[in-house]
Amino acid sequence: MRIAVVGGGTMGVGIAHRFAANGASVAVVDVDLATAESAVRRVADTLRTASERGKLDAGELDQAINRVHAVGSVDELEGGLDLIVETVIEDAALKRTILVAAESRDPRILASNTSSISINELADGLVAPDRFAGMHFFNPVWAINLVEVIRGEATSTDTLAAVAAIVKFLEMEQAVINDAPGFATSRLGVLVGVEAIRMVEEGVASPQDIDRAMSLGYRHPMGPLMLGDLVGLDVRLNIASHLATVYGDRFEPPELLRSMVAAGRLGKKSGVGFYDWTSGSPLPIKES
Ligand code: NAD
User: Fold this and answer.
1) How many helices (H) and strands (E) does the chain have?
2) CATH label of the domain that carries residue 161
3) Ligand 1 nearest-atom number relative to CA 97
4) 4: Cβ below 6 Å to ligand 1?
5) How many whole angstroms from 19 Cα to the centroid of ligand 1?
6) Residue bearing the CA closest to ligand 1, atom 12
7) I need a labelling partner for 14 at 20 to 30 A (CA). Which of 40, 65, 171, 212 fits?
8) What does the pLDDT look like over 104-127, one tens digit per residue?
9) pLDDT tens-digit series, residues 142-164
């Protein structure tokens, strides 16, 4: 299988890793060749770490690393790839421009890893929207085995079958969702996340107690507040704001979320969110 990933950030690196580890040849495109090369180095690092942890056969490490290469722009991609996955920042206009350019390279399947933008909206401008679908991966892609497959109005059954085969090739599982803002995972995950933040705001319980309740009571692998810290509270705020415009007040971001993001308390990536991550592990915040 030969694929390309457009956008070599957190998700692009993870998607490239997963395809390369499973035997695909992967081109990584970013804003320029140097940025794409830096993403390729990060893919090699994550593959090495996977090998050290016994998740990838030592004998396959060099081959997997050698399967990934950098390309400076979408226009330089080889024609007729099996798949091009767009995974640039969550900006509909940018994504549409990239998808149109990617389609002109005539891939068998074109996909977007958007976490919240409508697939029908992204398909606008494509010549063959029947060959386009959402393939929503989860971070870290090498560890989470779900692809949320989004079926747009024009996505054909042949495309869905080809996507299902790609998911199988990756040794992952799919959930097929009709295009609706937030799909299934962002819509449910963000709703629980914003309600948990409202509960902290109202003094119902501490973040630790809310998270403990959900992880032990409902067997969630982690509570909604810790998950928000890992995803990034700015990312949560963006998605909640977008979904509030579609579904109304139930997604309205709580004031506490807005003020934390405005203060730079974004979660793990900034060191502090609902937990203190400065030691590398989540610790309760000691309010001064
Ligand atoms: P990121 O900011 O880490 O990476 C985005 C990358 O896109 C960067 O490397 C950037 O240089 C590149 N880029 C920007 N403009 C470009 C252009 N014109 N051409 C080529 N590359 C360009 O973002 P991310 O967290 O990897 O998210 C990417 C997408 O995946 C978004 O749509 C996001 O909503 C979605 N997503 C994110 C997560 C997550 O947990 N981070 C999970 C699922 C889906």
Assistant:
1) 11, 10
2) 3.40.50.720
3) 18
4) no
5) 17
6) 7
7) 212
8) 999 999 999 998 889 999 999 999
9) 999 999 999 999 999 999 999 99
Q: Confirm or reject: Cβ of 89 under 6 Å from ligand 1.
A: yes
Measure 209 CA to ligand 1 centroid, in angstroms: 33
Does the predicted TM-score (pTM) go above 0.85?
A: yes
Residues 149 and 201 in one domain: no
Q: Residue 233 — left, alpha, or beta (φ > 0 → left; ψ -120 to 50 → alpha)?
A: alpha
Burial 29-51 (b: 16+ CB within 10 A, else e): bbeeeebbbebbebbbebbeebb
Are 137 and 209 part of one and the same domain? no
* Closest C-alpha to 48, from 35, 67, 62: 62
What local confidence, expressed as pLDDT, does residue 60 receive?
92
When divided into structural domains, the chain yields a total of 2
Place of tokens 């024609």: 79
The ligand 1 atom at the shortest distance from the C-alpha of residue 139 is 40
Report angle CA 12, 271, 197 to the nearest 5 degrees.
90
Dihedral sign, Cα of residue 272, residue 276, residue 279, residue 280: negative
Q: Is 139 in the pocket of ligand 1 (CB under 6 A)?
A: yes
Structure tokens at 128: 């063959």
234: CA distance to ligand 1 center in Å? 14
CA angle in degrees (0–180, nearest 5) for 223-185-131? 155
Identify residue 110 by its one-letter amino acid code. Answer: L
Q: How far is the CA of 216 from the centre of ligand 1 (A)?
A: 33
- 173 in the same domain as 151: yes
CA–CA separation, 260 and 262 (whole Å): 5
Beta carbons of 136 and 147 less than 8 angstroms apart = yes
Q: What is the largest CA-CA distance in the chain?
A: 59
